Amino acid sequence: MDDMKAMRDMAGVEPWETAVLFGGPADGVRLRLTGRPSVLQVSHPCRVENAPDGMQIAALHIYRRDLKVKSEPLRYGFDGVSP
Which residues pair with 30 in a beta bridge? Predict the structure, then answer.
């Protein structure tokens, strides 16, 4: 396994890491990601009535990485005040 990590590092490929979302509508969701993004955007489709053809509406939810967590699983907390 360490050989695979070394090969990824030499090739410039970032390793996949596990993260968990806390709070909000995606509480408890686990995911795999690379690059440790500081913010994740979760979208959920909304049902629409009388919308023009092709219109789609999604609710957006923001999750911010807990910078105190340095090892897997990374932790992202719901930010209910972000637009």
Answer: 20
